[in-house]
Amino acid sequence: MLKNVLILSTSLRKNSNSEAVASAFAKGARDAGHRVQEISLRGKNIGFCKGCLVCQKTGSCVIQDDAVEIAQRMQDADVLVFATPIYYYEMSGQMKTLLDRVNSLYGSDYRFKEIYFLSTAAEDEKGVDSRAIGGLEGWIACFERARLSGSVFAGGVNEAGEIEGHQALRDAYHMGSKV
């Protein structure tokens, strides 16, 4: 079955390691015949949620910035993929800000059921990504038809491009090809 896959790369660094993992996932999903759209938060204007909850009544945020269009694309996707660097054992601040800003999806007729998490970090210990996964699972818990379908972590990568040749690139490609 052909799926619409939306990949959200949340690193603001050009040629980032998490963006490379996202690209590998995208290639796998495309090779499997799915429609894939990649959105980078780099250069996007995404303000903080005001907590006004108007979006729950109107289905759209009162803040008119790039998060409104991203939320619409998320609503229309069958598969969501989040790629983030791990900072202080958590998802990037810009990823968390985006999750807060797409509050309009709660209670909407969203299509996504499968959600994947891709992350990178300088540290290479087991569990480095566990808090970030837990944070994403908290968001997913608000969407009863959705589930975390898989994750890939690339540890030991710090400088831009340092991920070249890393096993996580192959793992992300394989995961993308099995969507």
UniProtKB/TrEMBL annotation:
Give the GO molecular function terms: oxidoreductase activity
EC main group: oxidoreductase
Query: Under which name does UniProt file this protein?
Result: Flavin reductase
- Annotated ranges, domain NADPH-dependent FMN reductase-like: 4-127
Q: What is its EC number?
A: 1.7.-.-
The species this protein belongs to is: [Clostridium] methylpentosum DSM 5476
The record's listing under Pfam families reads: FMN_red
- What superkingdom heads the lineage? Bacteria
Q: Does the keyword ATP-binding apply?
A: no
Q: Which UniProt keywords apply?
A: Flavoprotein, FMN, Oxidoreductase
